[in-house]
Every structure is written in structure tokens, then in C-alpha cells.
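Re: Re: C-alpha cell formats

Sure, here are both.
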Amino acid sequence: MWWRCKSPSKGGRPPISQEMRALIRRFSRENAFWSAERIHGHLVLHGFDPPCPDTIRKYMVKPKGGTEKSQNWLTFLCNHTHVSWGMDFFTVPTIRFHILFIFVVLNHARRQVIHVAVTAHPTMAWVIQQLREAMPYGIQPTYLFRDNDGIYGDEVARFLKGTGIEEVRTAFRCPWQNPFVERYGGTLQRELLDHVIILSEGHLKRLLKEYIGEYYHIARPHHGLDGETPFPTDKLEPVIEPSKLVSIPVTGGLHHRYIRVAA
């Protein structure tokens, strides 16, 4: 006790301001399934100087984690990220228990959704047509990752070969070998599909268009992009003048975009 009285004042990290705490609680309240890292990314994106995710986590719930995979395959992915895309199917049941198929083509470099389509009856011819629409004016990758889904058949492989694209097939039952598009499918499930009841094919298309165009591409920070969005925006300067964040609900309030305006 005597040495404690004689010792200088305690150091350590500066306290978190009430404004920052309130902002973290607001983000967590309005977006219940966001992680601490996601909130940190949004705060940086809007010009704030937030505490580290571990500190943010004290004011919210449910942290998320991941696992590591084969270094050799990951090395190949990293070396060809800027010239490769991935494609995959995801299934969604409707309110009448009909199964709809979501077809996604994803750019690995910026995590951009190049093309998305919905159908109840996917065929090889339909997939080839979607690939044509995804690659207009000669815009195409060097490598295209896909799994061994029987929908693709032999015609898709011949189409890719004819367009000069090298097809990269993953091993059977190894979805982690196509990680970017598989992760996108999980993100789509957790952030949208788990929270809505799909009424019809048209309803699903409208939800996907709003989620991708109004949130995923322009307002959702990605750890793999150093906190940037797939469509990068100019980072804001640190907050100096009095200002406030205005929230814009997306997909019925499941997510929010934020813009900073003068207070």
C-alpha cells in the first residue's frame, strides 16, 4: 500500500470516450450479428479513431473466428488473386418449399460480385449464358475456380477453354479450396437469407440486388481488403468538426449504411 501511494499515476490506454461507447453500442444494436472487427472497420471507414476490436468486443456480443488451411493451395490463391474469379451455386427454399438456385461469380481481387442470377431450373446452357453476361467486352479472368457440381457438365468446361480461361476445379468435398466465393455464400446466408422468408424468385432477385448494390459493394468493410469496400471510396479525414452519422436502412433494416453530416 505504501509503495502504491508513492508510485506515479497509472499509465495504460486512454479511456474510451462516451461518444465512442455510444457509437459502438449503436452499431451493435442496429446490426445485431456484426462482429467487433466489422464495427471497427465501419468506424475507420467513417473517419473515426476507434479502439482495437478486443476493446470494442467488451460492448457487444458474439465474436467470430476462422481456421487455416493448406499453405500450398493458399499460396496459389494469393499469387493469382488479381487474375482469378470464383463461381458457385447456393440453394434457398421459398415459403412454398420450392428450391431456388443462386448463381454467383465473384472477383477474388476486390471481392466484387461480378454477376448474380437466380433460377429454379439450372442447366448447362443456362450457366453458359450467365458466364457470357458476366464477361462482356472481353472482360474475363485468367483462372476461374469452381467445384464439381454436376450442373456444369462438360459444356461449361469447353466454353471456358474456348474463351481462353483456365478452369480450376476443387477437389471433391473440399469447399475451402474455393474460399472467397464460399465465404461470400456464408456471408449472404448469415447477413440476409437467415433473416427473411423468400416469397418467390422475383422477391429473391430484389433482395439480392438491394443487398449487393446498396450495402455489400459500397458500405461493408472487408478484412481482406484492409477495411475497404469492394468498390473503394475516399477515406474520410479524422472527425474534427462537430458531426453526426445518419443511418440509411438497407434490406428492411437488416443492415445500415452510414453517412456523416455536419451536426
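Second one below.
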Amino acid sequence: MSLLEITGLAVAYGGIPAITDMSLHVATGEIVTVIGPNGAGKSTLLNATIGILPSQGSIRFDGSEISAQPVAARVQSGLCLVPEKRELFATMTVEDNLVLGGYRLRSEGRGAIAREQARIYDLFPRLKERRRQPAGTLSGGERQMLAMGRALMARPRLLMLDEPSLGLAPLIVRDIFSTIVALRSTGVAILLVEQNARAALRAADRAYVLETGRITFAGDSASLAADPRIVDMYLGQASHGEA
């Protein structure tokens, strides 16, 4: 059974369709990517799944229908979104941003939050070095690490990432994607929205291509990466964030 199963999803802005009749699924421990051009509806998909945007259709998580649930309930069930703009608390320290991310664990006591912090510092050693710095003073790559770390503090079962490579230098992009792949071994499922199609297909198990609000291609990542149509549209030139 799929951890996340979306069927017939439709989202509109002011009556104008942004997503039409979209269906996809993500299994436990699987990395699934959604690639496509700007304006295709990729971020809209994630925002509808977490509940920020109203939608029609079915969104099932771990077998339960969640399409009518508020954002907080979806997060409590194990969904988490790292938005494109990262949305950090700039004047707060790295450490305090992580503590806020662990709000879901408050009933388990400070020890649980401290253990999760230690796990995040193992994943992102640079954050441990910067733990006393305000988040607003971090580099772009460090801010992305913190955004991911804060989300992981909630022990999500499904982590949704919106353009994690955006604006980052090639070496940092490689580090971020290495971490994404490493998370698979922890059992966390990942739904990855990316314009860097080359890096996304390398990291993911399966992929969907989204164009003008509709899925136009779907399959395992290796097959899509070898498909001449995908190569021509998305892989013909080196994607941004790659050397």
C-alpha cells in the first residue's frame, strides 16, 4: 500500500485551473520526483498536499483520507513540507529553529528534542558548527540544510521538498542531494519537486513529468532519464546547479 496516494487532484486559482486530474503515489522509503517547467504546477501540488491550498480529489495518507484535514493535522500525521523560500526564523539561532521544528515532540520531553537535534547535527555537521548563529546570517546552502533539518525534527514519514537546489552552488547541490538519498535508509519517504531534472532523476526511484497542470510522463527514473523525449526537453543541456 502506498504511503501517499493522490487521485484526481484538481487545484484552481480564481477559477483558472492550475492542476487538472492529477494522480500519483509514494511508497514508504521511496524517493519520487516531480519535474517540469516553471509554472507547470509543481509547487501547487505540494501546497495542496500539505493543505495550504484548497483542492478537489482524493489525498490519502497511510490509508486515511486527509483532503478535508487542516494543515496542523496533516503535519501531526507525519507529512512535512520544506517550501521553496525555506521560511526560517531569521533572527533566531540555528538551534532555536530546530527546537521549534521539534514542537510535535513536546509531549515526549526535552530529551526527545535533544536526541533529534543530535541526529540532525550528524546529518548536517555544518549546522552544529553554526548552532549559535542567527539563521539570517547563514549561507544559502546552510539555510537549505537548516530548513531540511527543522522539518526532520518532526520525524516526518513523508518529507516534501520544493526546489531544494534553487540558487545553490554546484558543490552544495551535490551535498544536498547526497543527504536526500541518505534519508531513504532511515525510512523517510520523499516527494521532491525540482527544476534540476538531471540531479532529481539521479536521486529518485520514480519520476513524474508535470506540464501545464497535467502528468505527461511517469515511470522509473532510469527509464525516464533514457527517454529521448525527456532528454530533449529537460536533459539536453546541463541543468542549473550542476558543474
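The beta strands are 4-13, 16-26, 31-35, 56-61, 64-65, 79-82, 158-162, 189-194, 206-211, 214-220. Residues 237-243 have pLDDT under 50 and may be disordered.
- S.
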